[in-house]
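Entry
Fold in token form

___
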Amino acid sequence: MSVHKVSVVVPAAGLSKRYSPHNKKQFVTLAGKPLLSHCLSTFESSELIKSIVVVVPEADISHSRELLANLGFEKITSVVAGGEKRHMSVKNGFQATPPDSDMVLIHDAVRPFVDNDMIKRAIEECARSGACICAVPITDTLKRVQEPGLVISETVPREKLWRAQTPQVFRREILEKIYSSSTMAKLDPTDESALVEAKGIKVGIVTGSNLNIKITTAEDFRMAELIANKGETANVQNKNRNGV
């Protein structure tokens, strides 16, 4: 694969209202370290990533800079304040990335189990097509409901439906075009792909992973603990097999 200058934007500016009224989930400890640091460790170790920008609540900038410095991250070039909504936070992060980067990868801070293979495949597809997201095909039966009463109004065919994840990777010039557009303020997207799609730009998909969960609720966090503990057990078993 050709060498590209890839910058990462990690939005971690959410207020965690659905997780806890008292704790911001991006700073909660998972498997012995802050949740935010799990994905950062993966990007730090990737040879494909040149720089990282972390976006946090404005009140947490000083604390976050100290925390991340103490954890030894060397690729983090900026810690910036988030906006009122997620896409505004990502825009702030994008504006802090080095201008010579030719691709920008966006990844939710609360998806701790991103791996290097996923990163590599997403970057390769972006190099080919200009825009790419990780996603997984939906396997559940989907129901549309009507209110009040939560009554099923129809069963939605699941064929051709995929569940979007991050990483999402875009050529820099595509995001520059998006964020300079006056129409962006009228949109309320839940991911960057929706912004790009709204401009009529085709977005490719690479298969993500069902383990690449997004931690939104306390129940999600319990699931993450199970995944993390299983990984730790597997590492211990492998060491024992190798006589370490």
Observations:
- The chain has one domain: 6-131+168-239.
- Residues 233-244 have pLDDT under 50 and may be disordered.
